[in-house]
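User: I'm curious whether this sequence folds into something compact or stays loose and floppy. Could you predict its structure so I can see for myself?
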Amino acid sequence: MPDIEVYGLLSAAAIGCVLVAATSLILRYGQTSSTGPSLPPTIMLEAGLAADRYSSSIIFSVIRFTLRRLHALLSIHHEIVPDVSHIEKVFFKQNEAFDIHPMSTSMLRRIFGCDFRGIARDEYIEMVDGFMKIVARDFPMSQPLQPLFIGGISGANFSENTDLQHPWEQLANTKVLRLNPAYPKHVVEADLESLLRGLSFHISIPLLYGHDYIDRNPLALWDWDCFGGQTALLALGVPTWVPIPSFRRGIAARDRLVDSISSVYRRTKQYRNGEAVDYGADMTDVSETALDRYKVYDRHGLSAENIGHIEFSLLWAQNKNTQQLLFWYIFYIYSVPGLLDSLRQELASSGVLSISADDPPRITRLDIGALGKQCPLLTSTFLESFRVTEESIMFRRVTERLTLDDGKDQYQLRPGSWLFVSTALTRHDSSIYPRPLEFLPDRFVEGSTASYRTLRPWGLGLTMCKGRTFAEKKVLAVAAGMIALWDIKQVGGEWQHPGFRTGATILAPASKLRVRIKRRIFD
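Assistant: Here's the prediction. I'll summarize afterward.
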């Protein structure tokens, strides 16, 4: 059959499927709820395909075209702006012209299962503003909390007995190798992404909910992993009853996580009120951040179940992307020739951490606050990792008539229309980043510091990510600890890039990356 006929059949099939599915999703999720207008999932799909440089095939082009025509037919107005460099000031000076709440409520309902029936829009906005102000406060990095970082980084067991391993070690499918019988130290083989995701989870969760949550929910990390693969389908409005086995397992994992987080709230409330705590749980180390958020929920009379859904969404937002970014950060640190040695020299000369003379050596001090100030190459490598892997799109609902000028085109926005701005498309612009396809660790170094410059991975305007300071400190701290203590090499010899596939805000690796890890030997 000639290529043109094949293309025609595929295009017709794609258009037919898109029209049926898109119309169904718009009718189901595009309506207005008690908390305000909902974001049509089909617009998210169109914006995602337009911003994703990995979806440039003929079929994806046909799908984008079809969605665009369908939205026009149904009078769903929207604009996709590919360049943020000229419109950033608009998000600060005219922030009142954009409404972020339709995006947040839509995702809370679809992905995290929140039920907002009975909650009015004004009350919802007041509640969200209340706990987002709490999220915006930096997590305390005082000495009592630093052992959570230090213990997690240097406390890996990597035991041949899996019962003695931490859950995050087990998740990584670790395998102990004794490559040299005459040498008592062993090498561990593991999935790098799973290992870092689990390590990050076990560092972050106790900072918020205390150690009781981890101790009482040992399988939470597996549920987190199981749910993570289904968020794209949920964001697009796929019904939770769809009989896809992996999808159904992800929904069940989400329900267990929500229930476990709701239980933390109930036990914390009992502790605060001086009542007997379920199971005799120790809730004394629940963070002030969590306690303050609970006060906001109580003030608005939310049920424990709804609190579980909202807290899970915040937990996901605070951890998912930083876990993915941590993988790429560590990958580039160890795979770029000469970078690991340079970073070890920088850490040693900066004095931000101390390592014991024990066997095995352990980190005894880590000045987390000083990492970003005294280690410019470490910070610049972090920012460059962000630049090459970030794929974020901002969704806003326009509330006022507005003209946007991105330096190339003008966009006439009407009230009620949708605006999508990709902060990722400029990262391959050679006029902004010379040699954009190369990974240059020192790209963001400026003298004795490192600067974000035009990089905007945390978003724009007053709705910029509220937890960005904590996220940056966490990733820098984990990386510094690993650099100081561990030697890592890819299984099979030379480092090979695993490739990219579309993720959420951060691209995901297209394939598993097995590595061999051993403790660093100090002279």
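Summary: The chain has two domains: 1-76, 77-519. The two ends are 68 Å apart (CA to CA).
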